[in-house]
Amino acid sequence: MSRTVLVTGGNRGIGLATARAFAERGDRVAVTHRGAVVPDYLFGVRCDVTDPEAVEVAFGEVEEKLGPVEVLVANAGITDSTLITRMTEDRFTRVLDTNLTGAWRCARRAVGPMVRNRSGRLIFISSVAATYGSAGMTNYAAGKAGLIGLARSLARELGSRQVTANVVAPGYVVTDMTADLPQQYGAAYRDAIPLRRFAEPEEVASVVEWLAGPGAGYITGAVIPVDGGMGMGH
Ligand code: NDP
């Protein structure tokens, strides 16, 4: 059955791979972007998730073109890393506003129609950093940990309406976000990963796509690691 899927930050990286995975199984897929060109097989809507009005407009455009959003993948995210002694409050709150509040804004807008339809899937892209911690990333890890509380609260709030809320927590994935990792750190990180390699975006996308499918209908409030074993036990 074909569904309407919205992936935030779907113009590149994990978001684009995820959008492609849904499109390949026949879903109607919209992606948010901030001015980038998106492939023809996706419906692109311009949206900065830090702007509540832009979120409202983007959902309206998707609903008009493709119908109500049945699967939301809250993927848009940024890093702005430095040690806490050097991190300004602005750098902390900017990352939280995008990664956590941005996801909450999209979820808040998505759930109304899902509740009315007694069906919906909310998937939040967190990170191994949420539970493992990451030096120099207090803003990022706090925001990503917040997504777990957000998803689990939604799982409890909306479960009786058959709306599920889950978290996917990737480890290191080969995208623009990790492209400028200095070589010596890259090697050290790889050594901490049992599978001894970084993930390809498609390896996250396939898990997200499965989580939104019928085979995962009884999963809610879960945090699914896709981290090559890096965060085991956390
Ligand atoms: P990329 O940097 O490749 O892509 C990030 C995406 O988010 C882009 O589409 C970007 O849009 C979008 N975005 C950023 N800020 C905003 C905003 N304010 N409003 C709307 N869209 C925005 O990152 P990845 O693909 O690697 O990451 C995707 C998600 O996965 C993120 O949430 C990230 O934290 C998470 N993740 C990534 C890991 C990794 O190792 N790569 C590991 C664990 C989690 P634009 O192109 O306009 O900048």
From TrEMBL:
It comes from the Bacteria. Residues 3-172 form the Ketoreductase domain. Coiled coil: none annotated. Belongs to the short-chain dehydrogenases/reductases (SDR) family. This is Beta-ketoacyl-ACP reductase. It comes from Saccharothrix mutabilis subsp. mutabilis. The lineage of its organism: Bacteria, Bacillati, Actinomycetota, Actinomycetes, Pseudonocardiales.
